[in-house]
Amino acid sequence: MMGGMSDPTTVSLRRLDLTHYEATNGRGARIEVGGEGNFSPVELLLAAIAGCTAVDVDVMTSRRAAPEVFEVVSSGRKSTEGGNHMEDLQVTFRLRFAEGPDGDKARARIDPAVRASHERDCTVSRTVELGTPIRFEAAEG
After folding, report:
1. I need a labelling partner for 45 at 20 to 30 A (CA). Which of 25, 91, 96, 124 fits?
2. Coil, helix or strand at residue 23
3. Is 82 helix (H, G, I), strand (E, B) or coil?
4. What's the CA gap between 74 and 33, in Å, rounded?
5. CA-to-CA distance for 34 and 42, rounded, in angstroms?
6. For 42, which DSSP code?
7. Other C-beta atoms within 10 Å of 21: how many?
8. Per residue in 89-108, pLDDT tens?
9. Closest by CA position to 95, among listed 113, 119, 81
10. Do residues 71 and 30 lie in contact, with contact meaning Cβ atoms separated by under 8 Å?
């Protein structure tokens, strides 16, 4: 593995109906995208941001104590100025740990864990913030 790079992560998307798709990962897990009652692509982006940073913070805080409440809310608003994109992205953690020494240790880890996730560990939010270019190509099926 050169330059800290890992093998590519791949997700394939197959059309089920107009604006309704099924995404499949390399392990065979599936999720429907679009269509009635499913996550939109933008909602999946927000879920990916929340999920990635939640894993980081959960691992770093739960070593001390299991949370009583662990909720992560990811939000933003769509802008059409300069082409469609999301703005004002925000991730809010709602965490509660039991009173006592272990809960105190977990609470003391929340801010450092959130900071480490934001600045270094969360691949999804780091990719969004760095503005990683995406190459698009069309190939005949």
Report:
1. 96
2. strand
3. coil
4. 18
5. 10
6. H
7. 17
8. 999 999 999 999 999 999 99
9. 113
10. no
